[in-house]
Write a structure and sequence with these properties.
Number of strands: 8
Radius of gyration: 16 Å
Number of helices: 3
Structural class: alpha+beta
Helix content: 10-25%
Strand content: 35-45%
């Protein structure tokens, strides 16, 4: 049976919620559900696309928000140490997804984990780029 983007997002969300529970000081959300004014290390699960073939394939993003720090010159800047710590969780997340959803999905990193500035805030976000395959028969 082919899964919808919502179904796939639910599977990803369930694993991420448990995986990041003690790793960040925020909550795990589905796409577009994170509060706009949050200043916590929240995790957002996004399913970019999925095919509707017998072997269903797709791409997902997991964004982890990290607060900026104040430098000695009283300027806000990326907390490179924390970004590095969060980024290093990418392969462990892939393992958790493969362990928890064994037999249904195969997950792997699709690109190197990246970091971007969240404009008009004092936060950056780390993006873990994932791809999956799942049998529908």
């Amino acid at each position: 049976m082919i899964k919808t983007l919502y179904d796939i997002e639910s599977d990803l969300y369930s694993v991420c919620k448990a995986f990041f529970k003690d790793a960040v000081n925020g909550e795990t959300y589905r796409e577009d559900c994170r509060p706009a004014n949050s200043n916590k290390e929240d995790v957002v699960c996004i399913v970019s696309f999925a095919t509707a073939d017998q072997i269903q394939e797709g791409d997902c993003l997991v964004d982890i928000f990290v607060n900026d720090i104040t430098s000695k010159g009283n300027r806000r800047q990326t907390d490179k140490k924390r970004v590095g710590e969060v980024s290093s969780l990418d392969e462990e997340l892939v393992e958790a997804l493969n362990d928890e959803l064994v037999g249904e999905y195969t997950w792997e990193l699709s690109r190197a984990t990246s970091c971007s500035k969240l404009h008009d805030t004092n936060q950056h976000y780390v993006t873990i780029h994932l791809q999956f395959k799942r049998k529908t028969f």
